[in-house]
Design goal:
The chain is mostly helical. Helices cover 57% and strands 8% of the residues. 35% of the residues are buried. Bound molecules: adenosine-5'-triphosphate. Adenosine-5'-triphosphate (ATP) binds next to strand 1 and helix 1. Adenosine-5'-triphosphate binds next to strand 1 and helix 1. This is Tryptophan--tRNA ligase. It catalyses: tRNA(Trp) + L-tryptophan + ATP = L-tryptophyl-tRNA(Trp) + AMP + diphosphate + H(+).
Length: 339
């Protein structure tokens, strides 16, 4: 079976981008017969950006309920919270000690933060925590611990998967070769060509960190209000509009069939007014989301059930995968067997 692994950072309320880019395709892929899926709530990753414990906890619950409401079957897949599996942090340290620092210097997320500092005339590393610098190593541990074959990612994450391959290969080479073993399978990035990156309300990428999101399960009235606030150009009704340049159209396309999208494109050319276009977008999204929203609200009313599911999921996963592998790895590097 091919092992596929997907995580969402517990840094805020899940939004339409998370749904279109991760949850919807991942739940669909998990139904294939030859696939073993791993879904996790990346709360250790959240600490890099969010130093607000209440927000991390609320987000963990919201993202778990989102996966479940969207059809994830916890009896068929591995479903867990990252911090419930301490073997991930232990492996992170082992990988840290084989990872080249120079490679981490070139990681996109870190480089982007340095570039922002330079643009602002600050010192390179001003305000950057070491967690941001080390993030590709934690992500490598997430992947390598479960010998995931495929990690669905956007283009900007491909580099991190290559790092996971590099660290895994170094470990295999250093500790595996003398013992005639390959401890880690090397993962591949599954680039999601057909999955759009959704724009947020302000036109930048929709992201929990930018505060520009449309929450996936916002109440109907809020959904309508947020859609009405998407930035558009000032073209009046009757004036032709450029569909490809429009945030409203991009969002519509992510929820509509090919025929509906083609029809909307014609309406843009014929000068549909922004108010009407937004109303159509609202109706399209709401018709897909409404049944899921109902399930989500039911799930959120019983947080202790979700908590139990997560704990059970992590416990089974530790026994089946994480603990046996860590035992081998501790022996490989020369640490005591804890069992
Ligand atoms: P953060 O700001 O904390 O990084 P985020 O909302 O940008 O959060 P992540 O939690 O890092 O997103 O990503 C979870 C998944 O959602 C990833 O697979 C990512 O590709 C996908 N995703 C995030 N934002 C979008 C978007 N705007 N369009 C499509 N997919 C997205």
């Amino acid at each position: 079976k091919t092992r596929i692994l997907t995580g969402i950072t517990t840094s805020g309320t899940p939004h339409l981008g998370n749904y279109v880019g991760a949850v919807r395709p991942a739940v669909a892929a998990s139904k294939a017969p030859d696939v073993e899926s791993f879904y996790f709530l990346a709360d250790l990753h959240a600490l890099i950006k969010v130093q607000d414990p209440a927000r991390v906890q609320r987000s963990t619950l919201e993202i778990a309920a989102t996966w479940l409401a969207c059809g994830l079957d916890p009896g068929q897949v591995w479903f867990y919270r990252q911090s419930d599996v301490p073997e991930i942090t232990e492996l992170t340290w082992m990988l840290t000690c084989v990872a080249g620092k120079g490679i981490l210097n070139r990681a996109h997320a870190y480089k982007a933060a340095v570039d922002r500092n330079r643009a602002d005339g600050e010192d390179d590393d001003a305000g950057i925590n070491a967690g941001l610098f080390m993030y590709p190593v934690l992500m490598s541990a997430d992947i390598l611990l479960f010998n995931a074959d495929k990690v669905p990612v956007g283009r900007d994450q491909v580099q991190h998967i290559e790092m996971a391959r590099d660290f895994g290969q170094r470990f295999n080479h250093l500790y595996g070769e003398p013992a005639g073993k390959q401890y880690f399978r090397l993962p591949e990035a599954a680039i999601e060509e057909n999955v759009a990156t959704l724009p947020g309300l302000d036109g930048r990428k929709m992201s929990k960190s930018y505060d520009n999101t449309i929450p996936l399960f916002a109440p109907r009235a809020t959904l309508r209000k947020l859609i009405a606030s998407i930035v558009t150009d000032s073209r009046a009704p009757g004036e032709p509009k450029d569909a490809d340049d429009s945030n409203v159209f991009q969002l519509y396309q992510a929820f509509a069939s090919a025929d509906e999208t083609a029809a909307m494109r014609r309406e843009f050319e014929q000068g549909i007014g922004w108010g009407d276009a937004k109303q159509r977008l609202f109706e399209r999204i709401d018709s897909e989301v409404a049944p899921l929203r109902e399930r989500y609200e039911t799930l959120m009313a019983e947080p202790q059930k979700i908590e139990r599911l997560l704990r059970d999921g992590a416990q089974r996963l530790r026994e089946a995968h994480a603990q046996p592998l860590l035992r081998e790895l501790r022996a490989a590097v020369g640490l005591r067997d804890l069992s």
